[in-house]
UniProtKB/TrEMBL annotation:
PROSITE patterns per record: RADICAL_SAM
Name of the protein in its database record: Tungsten-containing aldehyde ferredoxin oxidoreductase cofactor modifying protein
Keyword terms, alphabetized: 4Fe-4S, Iron, Iron-sulfur, Metal-binding, S-adenosyl-L-methionine
GO molecular function terms listed in the Swiss-Prot or TrEMBL record: 4 iron, 4 sulfur cluster binding; catalytic activity; metal ion binding
Membrane-spanning intervals of the chain: none
Length: 356
C-alpha cells in the first residue's frame, strides 16, 4: 500500500506505482471467498517471458513494486523464483501474496534475500474455521507452519520501525468475528501488518458465503474496538472509515491489476473484463496481448478510473476525509453491477461499508 500523499502525487503526474500480477490459477486450497475461484482443477499458467515483459513495461511507467498475487497460489508457478529474482534485479520490490502452505524455511530465506515482502493468510486461529474457509482439511496447520518459517527468516524484524515486510490477510465475516481482537494482538506483537479485509460478494463467495457477510453495525463495532486497542497498546492511530482496517485503499489512483488472461482491471474485484458493456465486438479490449500497458494506462477508461475520486457519489462525495479515503471501489463496483448498474456508474457509487 502507498500513502495518500504519494498516491495522489503519482496520479497527478501520471505515474504508476504498482501492478498486481496474476501468475497462475492453480491453487492448493479452495478458499470459499476466492474472487478468482481458483483451485486444484485450474491449470492456467502465465508464460514467464510474458510476465517479465509486463514488469518491464510497468517499470517504464514508474512502478516501485510488483504484487505477485497469483490469482491462485503463486508459489506453484514453475518459474516463481525466477520472477521474484527478476523483479528484485530491476530495483523493484516483489510483494508476494501467498497462503504460505508451500513456504519452507529455504523458500522463506530466498524471499528475504531478494527483498520481498510477503502477505500471508490467517483467517482464523481456530483450525476448524480456518480449514472451512480455506476449503481444505488440515489447511490451518500448513498455513501456520509457513508463517513460522517466515518469522524465522527474519520477516518480523523490520530494519526501520513501522516499515513492515510481513502481513497476513484476514477476511472478516460472521464465522471469525469473535476472533478479530485476538488476531489483531497476534499481528501487532509480531510486527505483522494485519491486512483485515471485509468479505466481498464476488467470485466464490457469492455462492458459498452469502450468509456470512457482516452488517454495517458489525463492521463499525469491530473497527472502533481495534482502533481503541491500537491507541491503548501499540501507539497507532488511524481513520476508522477506510475500507481496509488501519489502512486506506487508494489502488485505483496508482495501480493496475493484470489477470491470467492479460486483461487489465483497476483491482481484483473490479472485473471490467467480465462485463458485456465494456466489450468491443464481443471482446474486452484492455488486454496486454492486444495493447501495450502504456496504451491501456492512458486510455479514456483507465484515465477515468484513476480520477474516480473526482466523481464519487452519495456520502463519499465531498467527504471531509477524501484525501485519505475513497471507500472500497471494488466493493461498490460488485454491489452496483450485481444490482444492474453500468460499470462506470457502479464504480463511483458511495462506499457500502462506511459508517461515518
Amino acid at each position: 500500500m502507498y500513502g495518500a500523499q504519494e498516491a495522489r502525487e503519482a496520479r497527478n503526474s501520471n505515474r504508476l506505482l504498482a501492478i498486481r500480477l496474476e501468475t497462475n490459477k492453480s491453487c492448493n486450497l479452495r478458499c470459499r471467498y476466492c474472487y478468482a475461484q481458483s483451485g486444484e482443477g485450474s491449470a492456467k499458467i502465465a508464460d514467464i517471458n510474458s510476465l517479465k515483459q509486463i514488469v518491464s513495461e510497468a517499470k517504464e511507467l514508474g512502478i516501485k513494486s510488483v504484487v505477485v498475487i497469483g490469482g491462485g497460489e503463486p508459489t506453484l508457478h514453475p518459474n516463481f523464483r525466477d520472477l521474484v529474482a527478476h523483479i528484485d534485479s530491476l530495483g523493484l520490490i516483489p510483494v508476494v501474496f501467498s497462503n504460505t502452505v508451500l513456504i519452507t524455511e529455504e523458500l522463506a530465506e530466498f524471499l528475504y534475500e531478494h527483498n520481498a515482502s510477503v502477505m500471508g493468510k490467517l483467517d482464523s486461529l481456530k483450525p476448524e474455521i480456518q480449514d472451512y474457509l480455506a476449503g481444505k482439511e488440515g489447511a490451518s496447520e500448513e498455513i501456520r507452519k509457513g508463517l513460522e518459517n517466515l518469522l524465522k527468516a527474519g520477516f518480523s524484524k523490520p530494519a526501520v520501525p513501522g516499515e513492515l515486510r510481513l502481513g497476513v490477510s484476514f477476511v472478516s465475516n460472521k464465522m471469525n468475528l469473535r476472533e478479530i481482537e485476538e488476531i489483531w494482538h497476534f499481528c501487532r506483537q509480531n510486527n505483522i501488518f494485519p491486512n483485515m479485509e471485509i468479505l466481498t460478494p464476488t467470485g466464490r463467495a457469492n455462492d458459498e458465503l452469502q450468509d456470512k457477510l457482516l452488517t454495517a453495525d458489525e463492521i463499525k463495532e469491530y473497527k472502533l474496538k481495534l482502533l481503541e486497542i491500537d491507541r491503548k497498546y501499540y501507539g497507532y492511530d488511524w481513520l476508522p472509515y477506510t475500507p481496509i482496517t488501519a489502512s486506506g485503499c487508494l489502488q485505483h489512483l496508482y495501480s493496475l491489476y493484470i489477470n491470467i488472461e492479460g486483461n487489465v482491471r483497476p483491482c481484483a474485484p473490479t472485473k471490467f473484463d467480465a462485463h458485456p458493456a465494456l466489450r468491443v465486438d464481443g471482446e474486452y479490449p484492455y488486454n496486454i496481448n492486444k495493447k501495450s500497458l502504456r496504451e491501456i494506462y492512458y486510455s479514456d477508461l483507465f484515465t477515468y478510473v484513476r480520477n474516480i475520486d473526482k466523481v464519487l457519489e452519495g456520502r463519499c462525495k465531498n467527504c471531509e476525509h477524501m484525501e485519505e479515503c475513497i471507500g472500497c471501489r471494488g466493493y461498490a463496483y460488485s454491489i452496483g453491477v450485481n444490482n444492474g448498474a453500468h460499470p462506470l456508474e457502479a464504480l463511483r457509487m458511495e462506499c457500502q461499508q462506511c459508517f461515518k
